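It is worth pausing here to work through a concrete case rather than discussing structure prediction in the abstract. The textbook approach is simple: state the sequence, then state the predicted structure, then interpret. We follow exactly that order.
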Amino acid sequence: MSTTHIDRLRALLEPLAAREGLDLEDVKVTQAGSRRQVQIDVDADGGVDLDTIAEFSRMVGEALDESDVMGAGAYVLEVGSPGAERPLSEPRHWRRAEGRLAKIHLVDGGEIVARVLEADEDGALVEVQPVKGRGRAKERRLEYTEVDRARVQVEFNRKDEKLLDEAPDFADDDASDEGEDGAE
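Step two, the predicted structure:
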């Protein structure tokens, strides 16, 4: 059985990611001019911050330099996270997307936009959004076997009532701040 370049990279990087409490989400190698570009996406419950990405990138660089997986050619290493519009292809992705809106393409050809309420190893409870704002949102249990593909959606105008209720009220205090710098 032959293994691909990506398989060899995954075999090297997955134990390293696991040791750091990270999930190795994606590995890509593309040609960028005379160099190869190695793109690695990692994630964890609660997300990953820049310090974690930087430290893991350093460790990956050392591991790649010590191994022969990349050969003698030059490469550029890029380590990041899956991003805002990440695909939902594993139960852990659905769990991490709780509270987020997702566009879900069903195996039967249907398509829904729903908020992920909770997820487990077999499926997710979602709140299906009404079409064109008509009607009420409805809860639906989706088994992963019913889902062809799904992707988190970016929301620019989300009005989360709980967050709005907890936000501080800002009084119009700008008028009382005028003239404090001594200018008239």
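Step three, interpretation. The longest helix spans residues 50-66. The radius of gyration is 23 Å.
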